[in-house]
Amino acid sequence: MKKVLVISNMYPSASHPSYGIFVKNQVEALKRAGVHVDIAVNDNPAVGKKNVITKYATWAMRAMKLGRKGKGTYSVTHAHYVFPSGMLSLALKKLFRIPYVVTAHGGDIERMAKKSERIRNWTAQILTEAHHVIAVGPVLAAQIEQDFGVPKDKISILSMGVNRNIFQEGDQQAARTELRVAQDKFVFLFVGNVIEQKGIQELLDAYKLVKAQTMKEVELIIVGSRRDTRFIESIQSQVDATVRFEDPVKQPQLVKWFQAADVFVLPSHLEGFGLVALEALASGTPVIATQVGGLVSLLGDGAGKLVPAKNSTALSEEMLRALNTPRMQYVNEEAVQAALTLHDEVNVTKQVMALYDSASKGGEQR
Questions:
Q1: Percent of the chain clearing pLDDT 90 (strictly above)
Q2: CA–CA separation, 203 vs 195, rounded Å?
Q3: Contact 256, 170 (CB under 8 A)
Q4: How far is the C-alpha of 83 from the C-alpha of 121, rounded, in Å?
Q5: pLDDT value at position 363?
Q6: What gap in Å lies between CA 86 and CA 261, rounded to an integer?
Q7: What's the whole-number mean pLDDT along residues 330-344?
Q8: How far apart are CA 19 and CA 31, in angstroms?
Q9: What pLDDT was estimated at residue 227?
Q10: Contact, 290 vs 267, CB < 8 A?
Q11: Is the pLDDT of residue 341 over 90?
Q12: Is 102 buried (19+), middle (13-18) or exposed (0-12) by CB count in 10 A?
């Protein structure tokens, strides 16, 4: 293998450490495995028409410049998100005959492809012309096969993997001391963007029901970006002194939040995979999540607890169950370890590299 160009419309920066962090994690894992990786990425989450046009134009020009300069040296490009990232990989294939692999993460198929007929057609072309398609979960893979006619043997189901050197069990008391979390409270944790689609409204409703039905001291900690100011304003009336918001942090710090918590709750309306739930498991934190997307396959064998999406009552009942059940009885450790082994970053990286080799050989044959 020569070199790989990774293209992504999401990538972290010092100002936004969690923005597309899973892509950077895979890039770093590939480098550790000996792969030469260049990146053409957008690390600016700014919204607004002017911002979007400017940042995407800059990103596209960088990808084209690297593709032109790297013609004959790149074995493959790897696009994260079918659209818009896949458009750049498709263009580089047309212009410079560089084959590409594309990873579908969920929102690109569930939301983006449904925005317009034009985007759906572009999505179909990107999937069709890719050497191989990676879906982060089996539900997403089935949707790509059925809705876009991609042959099953052209689709691999691979999560982004979890770095178990970072996400691992730790001393809860020490983590709480460092993060200034009360030692005597039962702590529910959410990590992710604070937006409606992540089920934050249902989480707050469920938490309110939990507080009404227990005499124990509880706290809800929400770690994540709060850029959607309109949504934040809409939930303010439900936020009391026992709800704590924290800004996104880098992963070595994030693991401490998992270690400090008693239960991690992910009430998303949709998830391509739900990598953050895997990170919680690796940190030794039990997981409650909604029965959507990749969370079903990740947690469905007993690694976590699943509840219906958009159902605050069912969510509160499971949160109460976690609150009132000793950890040893609540967690299926065998199922957790099986999930962690399957989705270990090292194993995932080897499979991604094998797909690169296959794409490269296919490109040479053409």
A1: 91
A2: 11
A3: yes
A4: 11
A5: 57
A6: 38
A7: 96
A8: 20
A9: 86
A10: yes
A11: yes
A12: buried
CA distance 1 to 21: 25
Q: Calculate what percentage of the chain has a pLDDT beyond 70.
A: 99
Span 219-236, pLDDT tens digits: 999 999 998 999 999 999
Q: 101 in helix, strand or coil?
A: strand
What is the amino acid identity at position 212? A
Structure tokens at 51: 């911002």
State the CATH class of domain 172-342: alpha beta
pLDDT at 366: 46
CATH code, residues 3-161+344-365: 3.40.50.2000
Helix (H, G, I), strand (E, B) or coil at 109: helix
- Rounded CA separation 231/79 (Å): 31
- On whether the CB atoms of residues 133 and 127 are closer than 8 A, the answer is yes
The predicted structure's pLDDT at residue 168: 98
Range(s) within the chain of domains with CATH label 3.40.50.2000: 3-161+344-365, 172-342
Q: CA-based Rg of the chain, rounded to a whole angstrom?
A: 21
Show the CA angle centred on residue 72, arms to residues 67 and 74, nearest 5°. Answer: 60
Does 70 score more than 90 pLDDT?
A: no
Helix/strand/coil for 35: coil
CA distance 99 to 79: 11
The residue type found at 187 is V
Q: Average pLDDT, whole number, for the chain?
A: 95
Contact at 8 Å (CB) between 159 and 294? yes
CA distance 172 to 148: 46
* 133-157 average pLDDT score: 96
**Cα separations (Å) of 322 from 168, 329, 345?**
21, 10, 29
- Cα-based distances in Å from 160 to 72, 163, 240: 28, 10, 35
Q: What is the mean pLDDT of residues 46-67?
A: 93
* Token digits of residue 158: 């691979």
Q: How far apart are CA 105 and CA 288, in angstroms?
A: 21
Prediction pTM value: 0.89
Q: Which residues have a Cβ under 8 Å from the Cβ of 360 and sit 6 or more positions away? A: 1, 2, 75, 76, 99
* 1 touches 75 (CB < 8 A): yes
Tokens of 63: 């990808």
The token pair that represents 291 in the structure block: 């029965």
